[in-house]
Write a structure and sequence with these properties.
It is built from eight helices and 14 strands. The protein has 274 residues and is an alpha/beta fold. An eight-stranded mixed beta sheet has the order 5-8-2-1-11-13-14-12, sandwiched between helices. Strands 3-4 form a two-stranded antiparallel ribbon. Strand 1, helix 1 and strand 2 form a beta-alpha-beta unit.
Length: 274
């Protein structure tokens, strides 16, 4: 039995991506029916930003990262652990899967501690206090294993918690990486807005099927890999170092492609290997 962790961004829940989301849900259902263990981790940044604005709150970002004060944390709970998680579970149920919605406070599914102020790229020379943002300390593998062995799909919102009852906002890519590491996953799939790592960001046909660490570092250095793809690639290689068998970056999926990515690595998206 293989274990696959799939990270979905909140953008997949908007109206423009409904067909892609249906395709992903159908493939997750097919993988489960074939005996695979699947864990889904999701974000919800677009929904949180939209809700903040509806409530008259102005989102604050530093270096592309959200400042999470008390009000923003409440929004993250409502948007990410609430609406996005419920809607995603409903989609998976319709596709024949058996989803169970979770968040960090669900028996400490994601145990975290508050991140101390730190200097970040694009944030200036001084340390930035991001508020109620957390760093993952551990993952409740017993809970995830119990669900997986019984045919359920854990659907994890990107929130963490601690033993004192505090909750924290955490980047969904970070949560997915740590869950994959903790489960020693056979594959970590990062669903993005592009069909993989591209030689030319303007040409979807320039997909790189397999990317080694050496080639990845060279591509970052020469500018082939840039912008938001850089942290995804760097974090992916860290996950490989910590025991994940392979990381696959992919997106813009139709029915069958996610399943192919798992069963035929390199056929869809970009496979990252050491």
């Amino acid at each position: 039995m293989t274990t696959t962790v799939i990270k979905l961004g909140g953008e997949l829940m908007d109206a423009a991506h409904q067909e892609e989301l249906k395709a992903i849900a159908a493939d997750i259902g097919a993988l489960m029916q074939a005996g695979h263990t699947v864990v889904v981790v999701h974000g919800g940044g677009p929904q949180a930003t939209a809700l903040q604005k509806r409530l008259g709150m102005e989102p604050r970002m530093v270096g592309g990262r959200r400042i999470t004060d008390e009000g923003t944390l409440e929004v993250m709970k409502m948007a990410v652990a609430g609406a996005v998680n419920v809607d995603l579970c409903a989609r998976l149920t319709a596709a024949g899967a058996r989803p169970v919605g979770l968040h960090g406070a669900s028996s400490l599914a994601v145990r975290a501690k508050r991140r101390p102020p730190l200097v970040v790229s694009g944030g200036g020379p001084d340390p930035v206090d991001f508020g109620f943002v957390g760093d993952v300390q551990s993952v409740n593998t017993e809970l995830l294993g119990l669900l997986g062995k019984n045919g359920y799909v854990p659907v994890m919102a990107c929130l963490g918690a601690d033993e004192q009852g505090n909750t924290f906002n955490i980047n969904a890519d970070t949560v997915a990486n740590q869950v994959a590491v903790a489960l020693k996953a056979d594959a970590l799939l990062l669903i993005t807005g592009t069909p993989g790592v591209l030689k030319d960001v303007k040409d979807p046909g320039s997909r790189i099927p397999v990317l080694t660490r050496a080639d990845g570092n060279a591509a970052i250095k020469d500018g082939t890999i840039g912008a938001g793809m850089i942290p995804k690639v760097e974090e992916s290689f860290k996950a490989l170092d910590e025991g994940v068998s392979q990381v696959i970056i992919l997106g813009r999926l139709t029915v069958g492609q996610l399943k192919r990515a798992v069963l035929e690595p390199g056929s869809v998206g970009t496979v990252l290997k050491n």
